[in-house]
Amino acid sequence: MKPGKFQVDGIRGAIAKKCVAKDVDLEAGFAGCAASDAEETHACLERNALCRACVAVNEADGLEVDCDLFDDGTANDTCPPFVIGAQTCTFDEFSGFLFDTSVGFLNGALAGTATIACGNVDPVTGSAACQCGLGTVEPVEVDGGFACIRPAEGCALGEVSCDGGNSLDYSIEADHDIGECESHAACASQCETHCGSLGAQVYDSGCEGFCDGGPSHGAACTNDNQCPQGSCRGRPAHGEICQCQCIDYGQVSPGGGPSREGGVRCEIGVAVDIEAALPCDGTDVQFAIGTRCIPFTTETSFAILRDQDADPGDVLGSESYQGLPLSCPDLSQGTSGMYIGAVFNTFDVPAVGDVHLLFSLGCE
C-alpha cells in the first residue's frame, strides 16, 4: 500500500461529502491548490499530505528521501525546497527612492544590497517566515547634500506565500491631527478608536510635545535635548495634538486581493539622514527621517497622509507601488528579477515637516 493511502482516502471522502452538501467553491476553499475540479483538488491534497509526511520523516530520522518524487512519482516541483534560505538582492539600475514634502521632492537611484532569509515552507499552507534586512547602501547625492541610508535591526518577521493566495498587500492611512491629547497613552487610545473605524489597526501613534524613547519617554518636552536617547515628538508650535497612523494588512485602495505565487511581505529596518557632505558620519545632518521598520512587499502597497503638517484638509502622497515576486523554487536559487517596495509616511521631520516616502528595490 502506498504510504499514507488510508489517511488520504479518508480525507477524500470527507471533502467530497462536504463539497457536494455545501456546494463549496473549491478555488476559494482550497486556495493553495487553486483547482476548480474536485478530483484535481483531491490529487493536490494527497500530494501535500505525502509531501509533508516525507519532509517530517526526513527531518526526524536524518533521511534524504527525494520528497518531490515521493509525493506523486514525478520530479515536478510539487514538493518544493522547504528551506528557501538566505538570499542577497543586489539593487539593479531601476532601484530608487522618493521623498515628498511640502518644501519639495528628493529622489535618487539606489546602489546596495538587501537580504531575504526564509525558513521552512509548510507544504500545506505554502508559506514560510522570512527575515529581511538592508545591507550596505551607497550615499545618494540630492539637493542640499547626501541621503545616507543605513540598516537598522529589531523588525518583525515577514512571510512568503509560495502558492499565492495569502493577501500580502497593505494600506497605510496617516492623519497628523485626530484631536487633542495630554499623553502618549491618551493618544494611543484615540488612535485605536480611529483606526478601528477604518477597519484597520494602529501602526504608529504619539502625542506632540512629549518624549519618544529613552529614559524620559512620555515626559513633556519642547526639544530633543530634553529627551536623552530619544526625541521630542512633533514641533512645539502644533501643540498637544495626536498623530495617528493606521495600517490595513491585505487591503489597498481601491481593494486588496490574493498575492501572486511567491509573494513576500516583510519589514526592513531603515535609518535615513540627509547630511550636508560626505562621509555619512552624523556630524552635519540637515534633517533626519529617523529609524523605521518599513513594510516592504512584492505585492501592492499604498499610503496617504492627511492633515499634512497639521493643516486641516491638506493631503500628502496618495499613491501605490506594486512589486514583482519570484516563484519559491526560483527564490531558493537567488533574487534576480524580484521587485520589492514600500510606501509609507513619517511626521514632523526637522526642517521639512511631514514626509511621504517610496522605496523600490529591484534585484539584478
3D structure, described in words:
This protein is α+β, with helices and mostly antiparallel strands and 364 residues long. It folds into 2 domains: 5-72, no CATH class; 83-169 and 250-362. It contains 6 helices and 19 strands. The protein has helices spanning 5-22, 26-29, 38-61, 67-72, 184-197, 328-331, and strands at 83-90, 96-101, 104-109, 112-120, 127-137, 140-142, 145-152, 158-161, 170-175, 201-207, 211-212, 231-232, 242-249, 263-275, 285-297, 300-306, 315-322, 339-349, 353-362. The strands form 4 sheets. Strands 1, 4, 5, 6, 7, 8, 14 and 15 form an 8-stranded antiparallel beta sheet that branches. A 5-stranded mixed beta sheet has the order 10-13-9-16-17, covered by helices on one side. Strands 3-2-19-18 form a 4-stranded antiparallel beta sheet, with no helix packed on it. α1 runs antiparallel to α3. The longest helix is centred in the first third of the chain and has 24 residues, at 38-61. The model is unreliable at 1-22 (pLDDT under 50).
Number of helices: 6
Q: What number is the mean pLDDT? A: 86
Low-pLDDT sequence parts: 1-22
Tell me the Rg in angstroms: 24 Å
Number of strands: 19
- Name the overall outline: elongated
Structural class: alpha+beta
Residues in helix, %: 10-25%
Strand content: 35-45%
Q: Terminal Cα separation, in Å? A: 48 Å
Number of domains: 2
Q: What string, H for helix and E for strand, traces the elements in order? A: HHHHEEEEEEEEEHEEEEEEEEHEE
Q: What summary fits the major beta sheet?
A: 8 strands, antiparallel
